[in-house]
Amino acid sequence: RANVTKTCAVTSVRYAHQQEESIEQFDARFEAAFLDKTNDGWTVRKIMNDLQGYDLVPEPKIVIAAMKACRKLNDYSLAVRYLEAVKSKCGPQVGKIWPYMLQEIKPTLEELGIDTPEELGYDKPELALTNVYDIH
Q: Can you give the pTM of this predicted structure?
């Protein structure tokens, strides 16, 4: 048997030739992606997943566009689940960011007939016990 040494070369790709995207361009790109008339359920979910991959809380106008996309697809559960995901992205600043977000998106939610997770009671566990030994 001959000993064969495998060599693996790792190359890094540099994106210095690309211009950085401004915050406004970023927001406009995702807003336009959500409002694209050709979107189906898979595409909207992919856009949401891509957006969740960034280390940021999306601007209210992007969340509003996502809610409109969900309503267009008639996917109420996706809308509520995405609101939960956005709230989760607020992290330790949820007490500051989430009330602002709700204030900005509330008129659209009312117009589209979408309730927040809090209004649906999803913020409280259904079967939570104050004391685990007090089952009865």
A: 0.79
